[in-house]
Amino acid sequence: MIQAPRGTFDILPEDAVRRDYLEAQVREILGAAGYRRIETPTFEATELFARGVGEATDIVQKEMYTFDDGGGRSLTLRPEGTAPVCRAYIEHGMHKLPQPVKLWYVSSFFRAEAPQRGRYRQFWQVGAEAMGSAAAETDAELIVLLADLLAALSVRDVRLRLSSLGNPETRSAYREELTSYLRAHEDRLSDEAQARIDLNPMRAFDATDPRTRETMRGAPKLLDRLDDDDAEHFAHVQALLDDAGISYELDPTLVRGLDYYTRTLFEFTSDALGAQSGVGGGGRYDRLMEQLDGPPTPACGWAAGVERMLLAASELPVRPELVDLFVARANGDRAGARTAFELAQDARRAGLAAQLELAGRSLKGQLKHADRIGARYVAIVEDAEHASLKDMESGDQRELEPTDVIPVILRGSRLS
Ligand code: HAM
Q1: In 74, 94, 278, 320, which residue has its Cα 20 to 30 A from 389's Cα atom?
Q2: How many alpha carbons lie under 13 Å from residue 217 in its C-beta half-sphere?
Q3: CB of residue 79 inside a 6 A radius of ligand 1
C-alpha cells in the first residue's frame, strides 16, 4: 500500500476547518495592520537559500530538498519564506513602493528533519515581513501582531524570549571573543560543541550537555557587546513592548537556525508542546537584501508554524457546516431526476447550501443521510410537477410543486 511520505501528512476536511479558521484570523489581524498577502513559488534557485539562509546553517547543510531541474540548474524546495520574499521584493522593484512594504503568507515549507510531534518534513508557516523600515516600532509591532494571533487562537502557555544580535561587525568581534573563550575551555565542552567552535560557536549556548551548559554560563554575552545605536534600538523595542503590556524574558543566549538576523531576535514558545516548543519566531534582517544583490533595505519579520499553533491551541470556535436543503428522490423517475438536479442548482444560486442525493439510496436511506449531515429541509422530488418538503426540525411535511420549494424555504413558511 502506498502511504504519504515520512514526515508528511494529509490535511483532511476536519483539519482543514481549523486551518481555515486560523487563516481567517491571520487575514483579519495582519490585514488590519496593512499587511497584504504574497505567495512565492514552492521551489527556488538553490543559491537563494545558500546565500540567504547561510551556508553554515543546519538548514542549508543537511535539511534541503535539492534537485536538478533536468537542464543543469539546481533547485530547492523552499525551507523558509524570508529569502524568497526578499527575492520577490528585489525582482519586482518594490523599493519604489511606499515603504515599508508589509506582506504576509501562509505556505508550506520543506526540511529534511527527523520527524516527531510538531516537526515534519513538509509543514506550514504563517509569515509576516515588513521591508523598508528601520524603526524600532516595526519590530515591536510585528511582535505584538504575533502575540495577538497566538491569543486569538488561544495558544496555551505562551512565552516570549527576546534578544538582540547587534550588527555583523560587532558580532564578528564578539565571535572572536567567544571562540577564544571556547578554545580556552575546550576540555569542558561536549564533542558536538567542540566540533562547532569554528563553524558556529553560538550554538554552544544551545547545548543540552550539562557540563557544556555550565561552561557557557561564564561565557561572554553578545547583549553586553552591542554598539550604542544597536543598544538604543533594542532599548526602544523593549520600551514599546512594555507599554503594550507584552511580557518577555531577555535571553542573551537565544540562537535561531538562520544566519540573516541583525538586531532584534525573538521566539515564542509554548509549554503545551513537547520538545519542539518553538511556535514562532523571527527578527530583523537588515543586511539580507544586500546579500541578495538588492538595494540596502532594513527589514523585520517572523514566521509561526501552523501545525504547532494548532497543537498548542485550545478548542477553536469553528462554525458548523450548515446544510439548508437536501434534495432527495422519491423514485427512479427520469424527469424527476432532472427536476431534482435543477432544484439543487437553483437553491445554491438563491444562496442556500444545498446537496443532491448522489448515491442511489432508498428514500429511507436518503432521509437518514439528510439527518446525519444536519440538513434543515429535505425536498423529496417525485416528478417534474410533484414534490414534498420536509422540515427536519419539526418533522412537518407538505406537498408542493418543485418550483415552490425555494420560495417556501426562503420565506420560512410553516409546512403544517
Ligand atoms: P524558523 O524558526 O526556522 O524561522 O521557523 C518558524 C516556525 O516554523 C518555527 O517556530 C516552527 O513553529 C515552524 N517550523 C519550523 N520547522 C518546522 C518543522 N520541521 N515542522 C513543523 N514546524 C516547523 C523561519 O523560518 C524564518 N523565515 C522566520 C522569519 C521570518 N524571520 C524573519 N522573517
Answers
A1: 320
A2: 7
A3: no
